[in-house]
Each structure stands twice: as structure tokens, then as C-alpha cells.
Amino acid sequence: MPFARVSRQILALALALALSAATRAQSGQPDLTGKDFRYDDTTKDAIVTGDARLGLGEMVLTADEIRFNAGTQTATAHGHLIITSGARRLVADEGTYHTPSGHITAHNLRVGQFPVYVTGETVEGTFDELVFTNATVFFRENVSYTPSVHATRLTYAKGKIVRAEGLGVGLLGGHFLQFPKFEQALDSDFISYVSGHVGYRGRLGVFAELGLHVPVAEGVKLGADVGLYSARGVMVGPSGSYHRADSNGSMTGFFRSGYINDSGDRRTDILGDPVPRDRSFFTWEHRQTYGEHFTLDGEFNYWSDSEVLRDFRSKEFDRVQQPDSFIEALYTNDNSSFSAFGRFHPNSYHRVQERLPELRFDLFPTAALLGSYQRFNASAVALESDAFGPDPRRRTTRLDAYYGLERPIALAPWFTFTPVAGGRVTHYTDALGGKDEYTRTIGEVGFDARLLASGTFDRKSEIWEIDGLRHLVEPKLSYRYAPEAAHGRAYIPPIDQRVFSTYLQPLSIGDSRNLDDLTALNTVRLSFNNTLQTRDTKYGSRNLAALNFAADYRFDPAAGQRHVSDIYTELALTPAPWLRFEVFHRFDPHSTRQSELNTGVTLIDQEWWSLRLATHYLRNDYDEYFLEYRRRLNESYDVTALWRYDGKRNRFNEQSYGVWQRLGQTWAVKYEVSFFDGPRRESSFALNIEIELLKF
Q1: Domain boundaries, the chain
Q2: Judging by beta carbons within 10 Å of its beta carbon (0-12, 13-18, 19+), is residue 549 exposed, middle or buried?
């Protein structure tokens, strides 16, 4: 080739590159740069090597060599190809990029956006939709123990796998679960629940438990829980979860189950009856909202015997020891609500007040005549309780309505006096005492007298983030008189009865839920509330401390009651986000003895440690001390410890010591040893190794 011709080509290339650099912002043409430039007259390609870079808007392409053809507007890259667009990044050995359309072809590629990455032999498409062959999707890190998905052909579009063929799920070391075609958003958890427990417990023997959920449809994940126990057998059951949300509302829920033919020492249940060999459980929870006014909540819990979760799922049993099954649909608007509530009883070893169902309307306090406020509620319910112990089966249909009025009178800016009056009418079918039906009508009168005083103080503390102090003092005196509240108890089927509680119960008959077990009211309640606040650094104020007192005086005490109730005290200290101290105290003034004392203090260092100390004392029942501690040693290891000490019997009911280990960014492993003392169904010793998959 004549030298003059070569010179003209080089000059034309240089002029073209200079013109492109000067006008690319206006014309939208790619910006091609590098250390060395040459021109291939045969292919009409501009060839750049040495820090070769092609830029177009937010897209940047780099490689060892870039060949750009101005006619086809296509860049062909070789060696360490990297294409970046915003947060998305594609790495390959070689490939092409068509600048007008953004079309990509590549070989031996890696693409992704934390925490999800994809590798494949080839890819074709755009960043909005890419088609991979022999693709592997892995999460967080490219190591052998990372969970992954493999597909012979996979289409990724706008954050989702929209098509997948020849799909397998497992670890990068091997894929052992096969699935049909499916769709999955990569910005949500793919396998939302993978857990494994191995260990030893005296009554279970050596055991291994595994749980797994995988997606089968948009927002739906199904799987199973499997447990193998050398002393009991195999427990297995399907499980799953679901979640969907849109502009109209959301729906979320889960279910778990298990069945075992128990070959071990099953002992007796809570009623003293032998535990059956065939044992199972099923748990379902559902939460749903639709629009701004409608909610649907439900739970269903079936246990074949009272001890099945205690034996095989002890942590779940600690949270719920008497299973509940209900469903409630609730519609609310600005000042009223309507609900349909059903409570069912699929189990037979404890008593439940079934509602089959209950329809209820509530009118919230609203303005009425002459500055007064009215409230109203009405309900219709089919009540039933099965025979339990010496109590026979009861059933009744109950119609109930309550209407109340109150008239706040501001006698001073700091003092409000509010007279109240109300009436309740309740009708029962299947009445007792020889009556087929019975109607009870009762009324109440009373008042609420409330004082509110405050004081401000100019106090500051950088350590406690205090910017001024405000002390709120609120004494309150309430009185209710309903002498006929206990009227007709001989005819009322006692289904909605009082439940055991050590806290102050509602004073008004309009707030009582134990409608079938009311007592006459002639009671005054005195409460004294104190709150200490400071300015919040973001908005409004925050509470530093609260100290509240309350007690009742009964002018006409019922059988077993005294004129003066216990004195109740609550204290809460929250001076900083890392410190919280709480106290609940109940004192019997007649015997000058402490009836109940519960305390709790929590200290949290967000980065390194946390500590929780609590005490629980109930006279004649228990005296327990609880301490839980967690310490972070480094990026990979935490240590934990838990103690439960029984002061009444001078023994440690539970001691647990554990180590948490994080394996890379994927797995967390807990090694735990526990010791138990006292007469209990559980073993005296347990060794657990718990494996959890960090969500991906």
C-alpha cells in the first residue's frame, strides 16, 4: 500500500476521532478512547488498545481491544470485556455491543447486581432482557458452599427470571433439586427459608432437622420440614409461605406441618392421658389488607396432643403453649367498625370459648348533643364451650348492646370533669335455671376527673441527648356504679368468664369482655401518672421516664374481695436508645407483702454486645431470674449465654452456651449446649448445631 494512502487513512481516523470527541455530547455518538489507535481498511474498523474504553451516556465498555465499526455502529471487544450501566455490570471474555440498540452478545460472561450474579457460556440481548445458555445464578459470593441455580437456558428481564429451562437448585458444588419452568424476582429472596439443626437431646436422641422453601409461583414458596430422631422416628410435613402486594393492599402468610409415628417414650399429656403413637400438627397464619379500610387476619393451630410441639419444636412451644384458631374480617371507617370474628377449637385438651361466629358493630366516641360524646356497640354471637373436666358442655346465642354518654366539662385549663352514663342489654338463649331464654338489663353511672399539670426545665446533656426537660403530672379519679351488674347470673350460661390476670381490669361495664361473669360495681379508681420528656432530635419529644400508680377502692366488695385492691406501680426508664429499664410492681396493703414484681433491664451496644436481665416474682408461684448475653468477637464469631434461675427452689432451670459463626456472606452456624434442671418433660441435656442460610 502506498505510503500516501496510509497517511491519508491515519489522518482521516485522527480527524474522525477528534470530531467525535468534540461533538459527542450534542450528537449522542460513542466516545472511543485508548492509548493506541489504528485503522483496519479491510473491515473499516477503528481499533483501540491500551486502556480501551467506549462510553455512551451511562454505559461504559472497556476491554483489552475494542474494534468499532462506524457503519454498523457496533463495538467488538476482546479480552477482559466489562460493560457497566448504572448499578449493572457484565464481565466476559469477549463480545459485541450495538450502540444504537444496546444489544449485547458475549461469551464466558458474568453479570449481576448485589447480591445476585449470573454466569453463562453465552448471552444475547440487552440489559433489560438477556438470554443465557448454561447459566448459573449464585448469591453474594462465588464459593462452593454458596446456594445457586443452574439452567440450560435462562431469560432475565427487568429484575426477574421470566423463563428457565432445565432448572436445578443446590450449591455451586452440585444441583440436586430439579424444577419446571418458573418466574422469580432476583431482588427478592430466592430460597427464603433454609435451616438445619443437628444435635442430641436425651429424649429425642441424635437428631437432624431440615427446612426448605423454594418459589413455585410469583410470591409463593413451598417446601417441607423434615426431622430425623434416633429415639423417636421421622417427622415430615409440607410447609410454605406467600406474599403479594399491590396498590390495593397486601397479603402474607405461612403454614407448617409435621407427622410422626412416634416409637419413643411418649409419656402422658396435660390431662394425664397417654400420648398417641400417631402424632401431628398443622399451623397456618394469614394477614391481609385491602384498601384503607379492610383487614383479614386468621390463625389455625391443630395439635394431635398437647405435647407434640413441646417434644419436637420446643422454641415454638415456648412462644405459644395453648394454640388458638380464629379468623376475623374487619372493616373500619372514620368513626365506626364492623367485624366478623370466628374462634374455633380443633383440639380437645384445653377449654376455649368458641365463637361460631360473632358479628359486631362499634361506634367510636363521636360528638352528640350539648357537647356530649356517645359510644355504642352491638354484637350477635353463637357461643360454645365443650365439656372439660367437671364443667359440662355449654352453648348459647347471645345478643348484646351497650350505649354510653359522657360530657367533658373543662372547669379550668388544667382540670376536666367528665360525667359518664351507660346501659347494657344482653339476651341469652339456652338459659339455665329452668329458663329457655333470659334477658339482662343493667346500667352504670360515674365520672372521670382528670388534672394535668406540667413544668419545664432548661437542662441539657450531650451524653443522654437531653435538650430541655418537661414533666407531665396527671392525677385521675374514676368512679363507676353498676349495682345490678351481677344480676341474673343463675340463668346465664357461663362461657365468657374471667381469665387469670394480675393486671388491673377495665372499670366500666362497657369495656368488660367477661359478659357472662360480671360483678356488681361500686368502685373508685385512683391513678397518678408521671412522664418526663425531652425534645427529640428529629421531631417532637421523646419519653425519658414514666412512673404510674393505680389502685381501686370497692365500696361493696364481692365475695373474696377486700375494700382496697392491690396497689399497682409501673416504671419505665428510656434515657437513651441503648438503655431500657422496666418495672411492674403489685403490692397487697392488707398483708404488707409484695404480691408481684417483674423487672427488666436491656443494654445494647449496636456493634459489639447486648445484655438483658429480668426478674419475675409472683407470690406463692414463682421467683425466677433471667440473664441473656451476646458478645461479638469479630466479623465471624459471636458468643451467647442464657441463664434461668429459680430462686424459689434454688436451682438453674436452664443454662445455655453458644457460639455463632458466619461462613462468608451466605451461612450462619450456631453451636449450642444446654442444661436443664427440675421436673420437666424436656431432657436435662441438649446439644444443638443450628445452620441458617442468610436470605438470598
Answers
A1: 3-185, 587-696
A2: middle
Q: Which of 324, 378, 351 is nearest to 495 (CA)?
A: 351
pLDDT at 696: 47
Q: Which residue has the cell 353463637?
A: 382
Positions of E strands within 220-347: 220-229, 233-246, 249-261, 278-290, 294-303, 325-332, 336-344
User: Which residues are paired to 10 by β-bridges?
Assistant: none
Helix (H, G, I), strand (E, B) or coil at 195: strand
The tens digit of pLDDT for each residue in 207-237 reads: 999 888 877 777 888 889 999 999 999 999 9
Contact at 8 Å (CB) between 47 and 54?
A: no
Residue numbers of the chain with a pLDDT score lower than 70: 1-28, 112-115, 140-145, 158-162, 170-194, 665, 693-696
The pLDDT assigned to 577 comes to 84
Residue 176's pLDDT is 58
Domain 587-696 has CATH 2.30.170: no
The three grid cell numbers given for residue 514, joined into one nine-digit string:
367477661
| Cα–Cα dist 542/464, whole Å | 12
Instruction: Report if pTM > 0.70.
Output: yes
- What whole-number distance in Å separates Cα of residue 415 and Cα of residue 431? 46
Determine the Cα–Cα distance for residues 75 and 96; give it in Å rounded to an integer.
Answer: 6
- Identify the pLDDT of residue 449: 97
Instruction: Name residues whose C-beta falls within 8 Å of residue 114's C-beta, 6 or more positions apart in sequence.
Output: 140
Q: Which fold has domain 3-185?
A: lipopolysaccharide transport protein A fold (2.60.450)
State residue 318's pLDDT score.
85
Cβ contact 222:257 at 8 Å: no
- 515, three cell numbers: 359478659
Dmax over CA atoms of the chain, in Å, equals 124
